[in-house]
């Protein structure tokens, strides 16, 4: 693809996108002369590839490392994922605040709220371009990484082809990520639709937007676009939004989306889409009834497909399938022990922080585990997740459903946010803090938090789980008053109260008597 078409890919061709391209796919980039043999060749310069390459060269051990990127360095997170979506969500949160300002005694007439959508998107592009310096080709070159721009493909067990260059490797890492998958709906392709790769290039807010898919992408962007001015209809095939989350957590989000004005269609099956003179006509079935809805744009967020095609993986004995991606063991080794894979191309946890953690495992296992000694395992990772709706939904560890499926007994403590002083003061009581622990033990097994900044709060529970700190330890930590995180302490205090048996009460009474 020419540099010109990359500009088109992250349109509009303004100074922000030009800066982005100058950093993550410079037009005048000349690939280096390949080294005789690389210690490590990394395919894909998204979060995974960048962390592996920077980590391996950053140690200053003189390792020869090559990084290959066919499109934009920074991958999904910088260009089409976390960064642009969270920049957009920031603007939409302001609208949310303004819309409920009257509950706080501040009168804001709805007609006084004016969204300058073009300015919102320009801010997104500016912020993204600014952050791109960290992922730039120039930065990685300066770190000592040989950066090759072009599509990589394995030739044989020791060589990778990129453009005219043939790179010899001792070890290789597949970090090619994933792309939007879209459902097989009659007329969808012909009618045209947006995905995460195109939606952040919009300059005009679609007046009527259909979002297909009620996962993290669908829920985050449905709420953001509704608040920024679209009339959004969210189609979810399942009976619950965010089906990987606790049912009550999803219910809070569903209620909030409806309060925002999103038409939430659950258990909906879209059967046909047609282009009309005035838009796109969606025919769908819900509860046995067929309905039609006309919209201006359709955004698809129905999951991801791993990028395993065109890599010639057969030639190097790397097993894969098109749904789960590259097959890896617990050490992130593929079926060819000299080739590793990490990130969205092989992981069920498709998050930037999971990609980062996996990349660190690859560096250790591929380069610093002689004879397989001291290797790290993916199964040891404790991976939290956050969906950045308003309120946010954060989770770590076991959920009730997972515990049931695995036959693990759990005890659960839930603190509704209307019992937390700070959320009461802030008028933000939709949500809860829920911690699962081992019955008759203070060992924490998992937690779900639904709160305005649940993403900031979940790390306390993650730290506790990762360091085998139990509910008693959380209860003994002093939390500043009034903060939302105090709800975590409240849950832990509730646990400690369950320890007050008639016997311990008797004991306390005795202590009281002798303390007089
Ligand atoms: C809309 C959206 C919002 C998201 N929000 C969040 C969030 O808030 N928090 C979070 O943790 N995660 C979020 N994610 C997920 C996160 O973006 C991904 O988990 C992360 O980017 C995965 O990194 P990766 O390096 O494995 O893959 P990618 O980022 O996909 O990078 C892979 C790279 O490999 C390149 N490549 C592919 N094939 C080849 C080839 N043959 N040769 C050379 N290069 C190749 C691609 O061009 C790409 O640049 C979001 C994702 C989306 C889509
Ligand atoms: N905040 C974050 O960390 C964040 C944000 C966005 C994306 N992501 C990552 O990206 C991944 C992909 O997100 P996603 O939301 O596309 O995928 P997803 O697989 O999590 O959710 C897709 C949803 O679409 C629904 N669906 C599928 N086909 C449908 C159809 N024909 N009609 C209606 N609904 C349909 C499914 O029931 C499912 O709930 C996530 O799993 C996550 O790992 C993370």
UniProtKB/TrEMBL annotation:
Its cofactor is FAD. InterPro entries: FAD/NAD-bd_sf (IPR036188), FAD/NAD-binding_dom (IPR023753), FAD/NAD-linked_Rdtase_dimer_sf (IPR016156), Pyr_nuc-diS_OxRdtase (IPR001100), Pyr_nucl-diS_OxRdtase_dimer (IPR004099), Pyr_OxRdtase_I_AS (IPR012999). FAD binds at residues 86, 344. NAD(+) binds at residues 213-220, 303. Disulfide bonds join 77-82. Binds 1 FAD per subunit. Keywords: Disulfide bond, FAD, Flavoprotein, NAD, NADP, Nucleotide-binding, Oxidoreductase, Redox-active center. Pfam families: Pyr_redox_2, Pyr_redox_dim. Residues 38-357 form the FAD/NAD(P)-binding domain. SUPFAM superfamilies: FAD/NAD(P)-binding domain, FAD/NAD-linked reductases, dimerisation (C-terminal) domain. It comes from the Bacteria. Residues 383-492 form the Pyridine nucleotide-disulphide oxidoreductase dimerisation domain. GO terms for molecular function: flavin adenine dinucleotide binding; NAD(P)H dehydrogenase (quinone) activity; oxidoreductase activity, acting on a sulfur group of donors, NAD(P) as acceptor. Belongs to the class-I pyridine nucleotide-disulfide oxidoreductase family. This is Dihydrolipoamide dehydrogenase. It comes from Synechococcus elongatus (strain ATCC 33912 / PCC 7942 / FACHB-805).
